[in-house]
Amino acid sequence: MSSTVTLTLKDAVEGRVVADAIVPSRFATLSATEIAHLPVWLARHAAPPALADATGCDTDRGREADHHSVDLGDLFSVRGERSAVVRMQGNLGNVDAIGAAMSGGTISIDGNAGRELGRTMTGGTIAVHGNVGDDAGLAMAGGALLVWGNAADRVGGALPGASRGMTGGEIFVRRNVGRDAGTAVRRGLIVVGGDAGDGAARSMIAGTVLVMGKAAGTVGLWNKRGTVVALGGAAVPAAYRYACTYHPPHLRLIFAYLRRAHGVPVDDRYINGRYARYCGDLSEAGKGELLLWTEA
Questions:
Q1: How far is CA 54 from CA 18, 28, 58, 128, 144, in A?
Q2: Where are the domains of the chain?
């Protein structure tokens, strides 16, 4: 038994790789040889298997049509066995669905990762010391997803056709995120250390989306009961109404947690500052809130 299973990409791979077999709880019961024989999928076309699921088509048939299977060991060298601690090395920007549906353990990625990282995960921790592609934390229900670079579009979003996105856990992106972060979030915490693209917290049901930079474009449209925080400012949607300016006590707890757990340098002016509170979206239940830091 090893303390860590290390996967090192052998060579650059053309096209996209769907690697949803990389799950710590599975590795914890397998030898190095058995891990190397797990299937991964090389894409013949651009659409990942998760999109076939949403159409109601059979998943395996969709994969057969658009992907062909190879052994994990054909792409990665495998060192270690029977451990729920996984370390991945190499340029993994085109390797998708790492940690999909994982329920525990740890995945550490030394560099970039592809799309749908941690898709539908319910527990454990994924830490990426680089950037990630679209749909990180897609329909996530628990655990922690930590990205020390940038994330592309739809962080913590919903599966195609689903009414709910993230339903639990936490996502922390140290730098910037793309469009539609936190779409239809039901529960959980999304923290963006930099700026967020257009459409953040759209159709949010509950939970918290905290943007430490600026939230661009529209933010919090059709928000039912969620909390959206923008330290660097955001345009207030027309369906929100000003309520008050105050010191939100729950933000102190979030900032203290970020400092303690992730070493995030939160300026005291945000911890001790006042926030303008806007209630909305009034076209929905109107019980959501948008908090904008103010020096006043």
A1: 17, 30, 10, 27, 25
A2: 131-294
